[in-house]
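Protocol step 4 of 6: structure prediction from sequence.
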Amino acid sequence: MSRSGLGGPNVTDMTPLTHGSWPTPITSELVVRTAARLGEVMTDGGNVYWSEARPTEGGRSVIVRRSADGTVTDLLPAPWNARTRVHEYGGGAWTVSAGTLWFTEFSDQRLYRLDPGSDPVAVTPEPEVPAGVRHADLRLTHNGVLAVRETHPAGGTPADVVNEIVRIAPDGATEVLVSGPDFVSDPRLAPDGVTLSWLQWDHPHMPWDAAQLIVRAADGTEQVIAGGAAESVVQPTWGEDLTLWWFSDRTDVWSLYRRRPHGEAELVLDVGSDIAGPQWVFGQSRFALLPDGRIVVAFGRAGADRLAVLEPGGELRELDVPYQVFRYVTVQDTTVTCLAAGPATEPVVLRVDVDGGEPEVLRPARDLRLDPAWFSRPEHVTFPTDPRDTGIDAAHALVYPPTNPDTTAAEGELPPLMVVVHGGPTSATAPVLSLEIQYWTSRGFCVADVDYRGSTGYGRRYRDALQGRWGVLDLDDVVACARYLADAGRVDPDRMAIRGGSAGGYTTLAALTMRPGVFTAGASHFGLADLTAFVGETHKFESRYLDGLVAAWPSGADVYAERSPINHVDALDTPLAVFQGEEDKIVPPDQAEIIVAALRERRVPHAYLLFPGEQHGFRKAENIRAALDGELSFYAQVWGFELPVGEDIAPITIRSPDHRGGQAVTPRGPWE
């Protein structure tokens, strides 16, 4: 009898099955079925708006409105797609006021306006270069919309791309307000209607390394309020009394500061860990100002978020809500609206009154029709790692044990381990129900989602430990995590895989080539193989990123060569699956293809899937499914377990030593 449905009976008589082959209702089809990646949340009058990226609709981003009467409406019918490509990662692609929606359409990157009861109308002209003029970080004012504009000239290089702050009138007339810095963000007009603030930074820094908060007064004078060479400022916000608020990491962790009119900057809240995060995308918000002077803030501690109210006397009062992750915090009167999620729930749009009352879910998560017993709950684990050069002797991970109420393994059999390496590398793990993780744990895998040194959430010292050491410390930490779990008897040391995307894909490739002998399988999703090539191929935002993570370019070219997995393929003998988007502008396909060529040359068992129409990360349902099922099939063939029956997973083609042409190999293939 099965517990795949709600309220199913307990199972007491289970037939042992090999880890990896456990039958599960958490299939790739369920992963994408009616799935939506929820994004920014805004309020306008009695209405609440949010964005949804839907894999079943080709990954397009839809703006959804929940009216005061509870009616939920898609504002953008297909094929409209509210998504910006500024910095390639986007964010801040839309805004709304008095029922009028402004948004950047993905296909041409023009700014559009949608009035109630009308169709979208283009505001900005068709650019000379297709999608060459892009808009993000939209913020409405009394006479138009503020935006970050990114202009790509014909035939230009990343160095030729221009980022500016502009004001766009309803008739499309555009005024350039800020030009000159390599990058700008967060244009915010003060309540007086004339004072402007923004963030800016220059190469080779990233915004989490060094960003300045600038204020321009009505007379045109400018003042640096915060930030500098060793200080990152994020999420500036004006109060109605013209107090300016922001997060800064000048005390190691991103903490809340303010500056009253004509006053000095002062620290308001330091919780001992990062409140904010790295600005990869526009439009983030981890705090909001209540009309009565109180502040709502989401902050992390020990691997999970809290949602709290900072009272006037300085008391930080946590709200009683059953979630552990909060994003896009906004307020209206005494009501907070945000995204919320937890270990047993996918993201929802949540509304809660800070003065009491039951939280209200405005946009529920999918009805998965699964007993919660199917969900593996993460454990926040701190494990020892090599402190050389950094003085930091521990790293962190969320560890998800294999969980399946219908199945067990044979006595004494240990589960395979999947070490997940996040991107960034400044990203961080989060205790959010992810069906992509549960896909693995419900089949008998143990998953370790690692916050290696360089991740955010633990302060600037922890984050900066990776400066100049990418390709060293991250490898130390993922290896240390795997060995820690193996030494504790929690996983099978002969069946340990490593997988990651983007920067996580680089660490995956580097671990297999520069720390051989630890992992017995791997999967790289759009990962970097050649750091030298990346410098010349990638987009403007990241074109100098490796100056900090690796070494200055080109003077440090030898370090780039030393840290590039492609230059260590002589040690690569681990079966590897490679997944890549054909239109990826951040990590172009040739990064995947050079490692695949090396695998072929060395006759290492491998698989390669290239997805047409996909960019950096897979958004289409069919491709998400193909990547998940293909990776499972790859491990099944490498480690010798049967694919679960009933899912009709087609075995991925593995090019084996004896079959360069692409014949699928049998479990425990000839290379062993």
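Step 5 (inspection) to follow. Residues 537 and 588 are 7 Å apart (CA to CA).
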